[in-house]
Design goal:
Length: 667
């Protein structure tokens, strides 16, 4: 392949994977491999400078600002770093620096693998948070940043303007717990903590971001009006004194000490609370940084030393198949114990049949194992030189290993799925989803209680929940008479939910809370939905043909028709209570902020939807109105900046007309 063709190939590969990493939070290429390909492109462009173009990945920072969030122009650019991969390249960086500086002092810090953000304070109060984006324009994620408990909202020093740069991450323990929860509910697992953190920070609903328990570590002072520092580490010390969680660092002036710290961080990375993929070496003196300046893409005063992922060989002993709540068959590799990233690995993810087929993985092979993001063990490749004779290609079973029902491949993807509606492997997960907050919202009947009910034979379908008595629940471990009565009250209350909760609770593929609400409002009742054809279903907003087919197949299932019959007999509501009663707010988008005293946000959102309006979690130029309660924060400020109308609660009710205030249940 000639160099021009290779340059084109590298650019296409890097741009594609950069979009997956920065914009979609769904990386498929390991960071180390991406960095290697980027280095190859840099070397080719250096040898053939006439081939360099402004849109080359070497000339700009990855990432773009999403249309889902308001753009933020960074007051100080959020630059990327030049990657190096060995001690020789560190020495070359040091040599270039010393050509221009007589005295050199470096700081060395862990390179946290998360999402880079700029966090701004005005007059000592938190004002705004934004993602890096392309380095010059990012996304306004203020409300999601506000949910990070480690970040101070007010500062002891009231500088007119302060901007710090940090890395939002998900702690390893939090990541493990989140994936365990997603496995129970049948949701796709996050590949690594960085992926999870980025996806959480870009949630349009800040309540979801809050539930993900994100953390942040500050690693640079971008701007401080009215205050100056001589050294980077002095600025970090000052930020720490003001309550910021600051990156740990080592200050040193010698190359040998820098290399020793790089090695130490690599040896101890497994013990750190966050995932890291390298070490950052920076000039400490801020005047030296200004002297050296930056290229079009990276500063000349810093580098990122990238650690290669630890990989070790092991023998594949077996492949076991697990069945999730939604019936998806997930293969898992059982390997001979091998020590990786500080822990002993005995299992590794195999994802799906396509993954196994592509890598030609067979039971009995010697495989190379690594930890994706230092967390999830995965098989990288097969050592074909060590393959014994007679090994056969592996295929997932065509019958469910739990219930024996037929297995089908999804039309729109790679998943293999059990078709058994009453598969025991799915029962507990189905019940946990049925009782969850976004579904039937049955408080006090959580996973531990459900597990005991299933084991005792008291519950075999979701409809059995409505036959339970206080005595049934009181006999369970850690369930006294009062807790049992509260749970029964919650079950009884759930009967009065809008039918959208029931549609969501039934666990229909591709039908979450939002789609369930849309279906309920469109058809008005479960009976009307049950009569709808595929063509009629596709007329509903956001319901495509594939989703409509899934839904129609589910509605035609005799087992699930029986479930609906039993739920109806138990008194579960089958009507839409949240359907638009008029078109007074049709075409308008509202944002709710602050503490509302006349009604809750959920009640206000229901009133808006009943009149044909929509509710959003963030303010933009497309927002029609902001309803502001007490102590309204950045959303109110943003609305004022954009000229978006702002209503008080009283104005909101007045616009809706007589009788708009929601009725409340007697306590």
């Amino acid at each position: 392949m000639d160099y021009k063709a290779r340059i084109r190939e590298l650019r296409e590969t890097l741009e594609y994977n950069s979009k997956l990493y920065y914009d979609l939070d769904a990386p498929v290429m390991p960071d180390y491999e991406y960095d290697r390909l980027l280095r190859e492109l840099e070397d080719l462009e250096a040898a053939h400078p006439e081939e360099i173009t402004p849109d080359s990945p070497t000339q700009h920072v990855g990432g773009t600002a999403s249309n889902s969030f308001s753009p933020v122009e960074h007051a100080v650019p959020l630059e990327s770093l030049q990657d190096v991969f060995n001690a020789g390249e560190v020495a070359e960086f040091d040599r270039r620096v010393r050509e221009q500086l007589a005295h050199v002092e470096y700081s060395v810090e862990p390179k946290v693998d998360g999402l880079s953000v700029a966090i701004e304070y005005r007059d000592g109060r938190f004002y705004r948070g934004a993602t890096r984006g392309d380095g010059r324009t990012g996304e306004d994620v203020t409300e999601n940043i506000r949910t990070i408990r480690a970040l101070p909202m007010t500062l002891p020093e009231k500088l007119p303007r302060l901007i710090v740069r940090g890395e939002v991450y998900m702690a390893k323990t939090t990541f493990a717990a989140l994936n365990a929860e997603r496995e129970i509910t049948g949701e796709p697992l996050f590949a690594n903590p960085r992926n999870a953190a980025a996806g959480s920070l870009r949630q349009l609903d800040s309540r979801i971001a809050a539930q993900r328990r994100l953390d942040v570590v500050i690693f640079n002072l971008q701007l401080a009006e009215g205050k100056t520092f001589a050294r980077h580490t002095d600025a970090l010390d000052d930020l720490a004194a003001q309550g910021f969680p600051v990156i740990p660092y080592l200050r040193t002036g010698e190359l040998d000490a820098v290399n020793a710290e790089i090695t130490r961080l690599n040896d101890e990375r497994a013990a750190l609370p966050f995932d890291m993929d390298g070490a950052v070496v920076k000039l400490n003196a801020l005047s030296d940084r200004e002297l050296l300046g930056s290229t079009a893409k990276v500063p000349r005063w810093a580098i990122a030393y990238k650690y290669p992922p630890e990989q070790k060989p092991s023998k594949l002993l077996d492949i076991v198949v697990q069945v999730g709540r939604t019936g998806v068959l997930t293969p898992k590799a059982v390997v001979e114990p091998v020590r990786l990233a500080g822990t002993t690995v005995t299992n590794a993810t195999l994802h799906n049949q396509d993954f196994i087929t592509e890598k030609d993985i067979r039971i009995g092979d010697t495989v190379i194992v690594q930890k994706a993001g230092e967390i999830i063990p995965e098989i990288v490749r097969v050592d074909f030189d060590k393959r014994p004779e007679g090994l056969t290609p592996y295929r997932l079973p065509d019958r469910c290993p739990v219930c024996g029902a037929r297995v089908e491949r999804d039309e729109d993807g790679v998943a293999m799925r059990c078709t058994g509606a009453e598969c025991p492997a799915q029962l507990l997960r189905n019940l946990e989803h049925f009782t969850s907050r976004e579904a039937m919202d049955i408080d006090g009947v959580g996973p531990a209680v459900l597990r005991q009910l299933v084991e005792a034979g008291l519950v075999q379908t979701a409809a059995d929940l409505y036959r339970l008595t206080v005595q049934d629940l009181a006999q369970l471990d850690r369930m006294g008479q009062k807790s049992a009565q509260n749970a029964i009250d919650a079950i009884e209350k759930s009967k009065r939910n809008d039918v959208s909760h029931l549609i969501c609770a039934l666990g229909i593929r591709q039908i979450g809370a939002k789609a369930a609400r849309t279906l309920a409002q469109h058809f008005g009742s479960f009976d009307a939905l049950a009569r709808a054809s595929v063509e009629e279903l596709t007329q509903v907003d956001d319901i495509g043909e594939i989703t409509a087919k899934f839904l129609r197949e589910w509605l035609d299932s005799p087992q699930l028709q029986d479930l609906i019959r039993r739920l109806r007999e138990a008194g579960v509501n089958m009507e839409c209570l949240d359907r638009p009663t008029d078109d007074a707010l049709r075409g308008m988008t509202f944002v709710l902020t602050g503490t509302l005293t006349r009604f809750t946000r959920d009640e206000a959102a229901a009133m808006i939807r009943q009149r044909g309006g929509k509710v959003s979690g963030s303010v933009s130029k497309k927002t029609s109105c902001v309803v502001a309660g007490e102590a309204a924060g950045s959303k109110l400020t943003k609305a004022q900046e954009l000229g978006v109308p702002v209503w008080t609660e009283d104005e909101f009710l007045a616009r809706l007309g007589d009788g708009a205030e929601p009725e409340r249940e007697e306590q």
